Every structure is written in structure tokens, then in C-alpha cells.
Amino acid sequence: MSAPVAAELEALSQALVAVARDAISQTYPACGLWAADMRSELNRVWRDFHTA
Length: 52
Hints:
Blueprint: H1 3-30, H2 33-36, H3 41-51
Helix pairs in contact: 1-3
């Protein structure tokens, strides 16, 4: 992979992570106590994202 392609891939990957982070950060509090339930899928996604 050439350096310009690698740089573009890195920039796109970082942008995708930023979009995912924003979506999780906005969705989690909007779901109230359900999101805090350890059995909820959203809680698992939030924990996985923030510990990765």
C-alpha cells in the first residue's frame, strides 16, 4: 500500500470512529436507565467502545 493511500485510509478510519463515538455518546444518555442495565446491548456496546 502506498503512503498516500495509507494516509487516506487512516483519515477515513479516524472519521468513522469519530462518527461512532458521537452516535454512542448521544444515544446512551437518551436511553435513560435502560442503557445502564448491564444486560442491555447498548450498555455492552458503550463499554466495549470505551475500553477498546
